[in-house]
């Protein structure tokens, strides 16, 4: 991916490395190509280097190695204020000594726009985030969600084509967060801007993004659209990190076309789709989503291997049932079933047999 | 999300106006807080407010004339000070009676030195007359006018009588007039002779030099505070010790060190001569003048500027500067429009501290100030401890206090006192 210089590349990271202390690499070999207008989310656990990447793009940290290009131009030597990148900071960074309108007008003033033009733009930006009536207030007089909107408006008011957002919704409660996710997505689509969005909330990443880059250990573990990321994780970190996931460990017995036969550690055999395994004898960790597990024998394909399971716990969650099972020694095996009229409510202690479609069960790295 | 606009007073759940029930709820809290600070409050009242009140009182108090010469003051009431002649016999008789008692109580010399502030020679006049009156017999020695004329012919001149009459009321504005280079003449306040005017000039000099010192503290302290606030914690703490180091050495040692540095045979002059920048016979005069005072006091007061600035700057997150730059501001614009306004409270606090400290500073100007670099406080100290004219010292102090309060008020009006932060 690193070597393909696609013509529609807008943001490009090429073999970028970053170290703060000269001993540890915080970002190791980052390669990323974003086309114009994309909404890309960097998702990853705390300390995985997401903010660092954003700061390098914005120009507040320099890459130790590698090249960052914006619209085909290397920006390693362009100072931050000339990059024209809008940024929403984790703590909003609204200037406390200026009113909301002054905050918004600041980027226009430094660009030497006329007063009338400034006022129209500020007003338009405020209306866009539905904060038109708050121009005269100080940031401290706004709620968290309102501050968030202002920070967003400020990053957009000078018509940056690229906007970076570092966990902008981290401080908000769940409901407001969901509302703002929707708003940000809508505004980004309306304006056609390119967005790099950082979060460690996977729901946020899945619902908002065109593509998600899953970070861990200073590398992009997988870069894919949300559905692909969820359904076809490429390694066990991604499978674990995105959504709920059941894992079973074992050794590959044989691989036939696009199915692999895996012998679990307690001796049972299951069918999987080989993803990160290529030859018999390799250790593997198989991953299966809770909602893809079937225990109703009628719905399983002929001849697939099944596993014995014991129901340990039944949790009623309204729209779904969440049942915890003991499977092949794993006591945290979860299955999720829809709350339908004909659905069984499995009682603890019941012995059942479970199975799945081989393509839903992915044999990943150990 | 939308602004709530209500008309009329807001009511609490039980129907009382919300304002009233809020203040009732807060009253208990306030009472408790007051009890907690009561010991401190008393301490402050006794050790801070009381001396100031006493000083303010002394600056107008003038009971000594009336208490020492009660009969004379009464008899003198009808005398016309513009007559050009000494009063008549009854006044002298009253004076003899008063002085007789005063001599026994040994209060006449004190009165003498009090009146000496206003009329040179009064002190010796009273001492001399006291001895003579002690030998008189009140019953038989009348008339007294000639007797007093024999003791000292100043008694038959109008000057001393005019002074006694002017200063006979219990309270006087005399000290204050004196403190602004004026005096009480026969027709009210008048300017002192040119060669006796000193205080207005001293006040002006004190204000001017304090401003210069505050200004140089800001200029020197701001970059230091900025560096301290932006360094990693460990290094910053280390450097902070260097800033605080002067606090741990004696003020006198530091001031004397400046003498060593700045004097004509001192380190700096030696270096300049050695470098050939200054001729050996034209060594710079940098001590015992205004320059020396400004340099030494800037050095001594600098920590008071750096500390509040540092603690304010520490609370300014670096993300503001980054945000400003990401919005397109150059380094300078980002600093000037975003960082600097937020550091103003620190500058304000530091300036108030340094200015008020320097306006009343005494030791350093005394040591390195010479004649042109001394402050009004040196004059106050002189009146308190050497000339013992406490009233004048108190008046000078009261004026100084008023000036400081006035400046404080002006600062509040211009910058806003809530814009002063010592930290957090
Ligand atoms: N200024 C710095 N100096 C030294 N190390 C740093 C600095 N900033 C970040 N790091 C280190 O770099 C690593 C990545 O940090 P980064 O802030 O990029 O993580 P992140 O993915 O944004 O995490 P989070 O989700 O918690 O915000 C961390 O181990 C952190 O300790
Ligand atoms: Mg971060």
UniProtKB/TrEMBL annotation, chain A:
InterPro entries: AAA+_ATPase, ABC_SmlMolc_Importer, ABC_transporter-like_ATP-bd, ABC_transporter-like_CS, Mo/tungstate-bd_C_term_dom, P-loop_NTPase, PotA-like, Transp-assoc_OB_typ2. Its EC number is 7.6.2.11. GO terms for molecular function: ATP binding; kinase activity. This is Spermidine/putrescine import ATP-binding protein PotA. Belongs to the ABC transporter superfamily. Spermidine/putrescine importer (TC 3.A.1.11.1) family. SUPFAM superfamilies: MOP-like, P-loop containing nucleoside triphosphate hydrolases. The keyword Hydrolase does not apply. Transmembrane segments: none annotated.
Automatic annotation (TrEMBL), chain B:
It holds the Pfam family BPD_transp_1. Gene3D superfamilies: MetI-like. The keyword Transmembrane applies. Keywords: Cell membrane, Membrane, Transmembrane, Transmembrane helix, Transport. It is a multi-pass membrane protein. It is found in: Cell membrane. The chain crosses the membrane at residues 33-53, 207-229, 235-253, 291-312, 344-363, 390-411. Residues 203-411 form the ABC transmembrane type-1 domain. Belongs to the binding-protein-dependent transport system permease family. CysTW subfamily. This is ABC transporter permease. The lineage of its organism: Bacteria, Pseudomonadati, Pseudomonadota, Alphaproteobacteria, Rhodobacterales.
């Amino acid at each position: 991916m690193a070597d393909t210089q696609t013509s529609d590349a807008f943001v490009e990271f090429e073999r970028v490395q970053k170290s703060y202390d000269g001993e540890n690499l915080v970002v190791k070999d980052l390669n990323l190509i974003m086309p114009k207008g994309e909404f890309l989310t960097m998702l990853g656990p705390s300390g995985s280097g997401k903010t660092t990447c954003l700061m390098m793009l914005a120009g507040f940290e320099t890459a130790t190695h590698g090249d960052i290009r914006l619209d085909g131009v290397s920006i390693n030597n362009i100072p931050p204020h000339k990059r024209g990148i809008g940024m929403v900071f984790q703590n909003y960074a609204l200037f406390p000594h200026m009113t909301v309108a002054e905050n918004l007008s600041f980027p226009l003033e430094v660009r030497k726009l006329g007063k009338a033009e400034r006022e129209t733009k500020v007003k338009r930006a405020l209306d866009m985030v539905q904060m038109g009536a708050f121009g005269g207030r100080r940031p401290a007089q706004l709620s968290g969600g309102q501050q968030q909107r202002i920070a967003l408006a400020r990053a957009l008011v000078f018509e940056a084509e690229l906007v970076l957002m570092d966990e902008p919704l981290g401080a908000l409660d769940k409901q407001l967060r969901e509302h703002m996710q929707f708003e940000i997505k809508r505004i980004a689509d309306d304006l056609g801007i390119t967005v790099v969005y950082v979060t460690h909330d996977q729901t946020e990443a899945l619902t908002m993004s065109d593509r998600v880059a899953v970070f861990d250990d200073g590398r992009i573990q997988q870069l894919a659209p949300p559905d692909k990321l969820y359904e076809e994780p490429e390694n066990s970190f991604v499978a674990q990190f995105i959504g709920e996931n059941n894992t079973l460990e074992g050794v590959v017995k044989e691989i036939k076309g696009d199915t692999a036969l895996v012998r679990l550690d307690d001796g049972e055999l299951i069918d999987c789709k080989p993803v990160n395994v290529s030859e018999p004898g390799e250790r593997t960790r198989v991953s299966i989503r809770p909602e893809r597990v079937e225990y109703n024998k009628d719905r399983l394909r002929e001849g697939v291997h099944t596993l014995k399971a014991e129901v340990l716990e039944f949790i009623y969650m309204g729209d779904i049932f969440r049942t915890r099972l003991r499977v092949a020694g794993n006591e945290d095996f979860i299955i999720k079933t829809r709350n339908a009229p004909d659905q069984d409510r499995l009682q603890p202690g019941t012995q059942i047999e479970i199975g799945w479609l081989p393509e839903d069960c992915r044999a990943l790295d150990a | 999300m939308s602004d709530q606009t209500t008309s009329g007073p807001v009511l609490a759940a039980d129907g009382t106006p919300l304002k009233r029930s809020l203040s009732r709820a807060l009253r208990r809290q306030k009472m408790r807080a007051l009890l907690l600070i009561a010991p401190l409050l008393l301490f402050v009242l006794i050790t801070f407010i009381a001396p100031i009140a006493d000083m303010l009182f002394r600056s107008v108090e003038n009971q000594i004339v009336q208490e020492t010469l009660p009969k004379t003051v009464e008899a003198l009431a009808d005398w016309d000070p513009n007559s050009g002649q000494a009063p008549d016999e009854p006044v002298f008789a009253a004076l003899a009676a008063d002085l007789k008692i005063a001599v026994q109580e040994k209060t006449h010399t004190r009165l003498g030195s009090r009146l000496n502030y206003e009329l040179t020679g009064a002190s010796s006049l009273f001492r001399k007359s006291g001895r003579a009156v002690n030998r008189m017999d009140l019953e038989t020695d009348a008339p007294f006018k000639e007797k007093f004329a024999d003791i000292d012919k100043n008694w038959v001149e109008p000057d001393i009588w005019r002074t006694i009459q002017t200063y006979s009321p219990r309270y006087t504005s005399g000290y204050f007039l004196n403190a602004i280079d004026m005096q009480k003449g026969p027709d009210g306040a008048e300017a002192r002779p040119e060669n006796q005017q000193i205080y207005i000039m001293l006040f002006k000099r004190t204000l001017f030099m304090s401003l210069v010192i505050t200004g140089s503290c800001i200029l020197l302290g701001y970059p230091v505070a900025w560096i301290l606030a932006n360094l990693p914690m460990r290094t910053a703490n280390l450097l902070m010790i260097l800033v605080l180091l002067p606090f741990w050495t004696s003020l006198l040692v530091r001031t004397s060190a400046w003498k060593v540095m700045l004097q004509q045979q001192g380190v700096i002059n030696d270096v300049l001569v050695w470098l050939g920048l200054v001729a050996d016979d034209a060594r710079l005069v940098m001590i015992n003048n205004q320059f020396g005072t400004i340099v030494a006091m800037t050095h001594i007061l600098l920590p008071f500027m750096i500390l509040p600035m540092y603690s304010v700057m520490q609370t300014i997150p670096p993300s503001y500067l980054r945000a400003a730059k990401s919005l397109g501001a150059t380094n300078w614009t980002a600093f000037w429009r975003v960082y600097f306004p937020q550091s103003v409270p620190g500058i304000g606090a530091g300036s108030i501290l340094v200015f008020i400290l320097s306006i009343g500073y005494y030791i350093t100007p005394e040591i390195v100030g010479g004649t042109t670099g001394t402050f009004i406080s040196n004059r106050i100290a002189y009146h308190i401890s050497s000339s013992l004219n406490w009233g004048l010292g108190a008046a000078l102090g009261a004026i100084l206090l008023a000036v400081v309060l006035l400046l404080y008020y002006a600062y509040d009006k211009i910058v806003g006192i809530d814009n002063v932060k010592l930290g957090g």
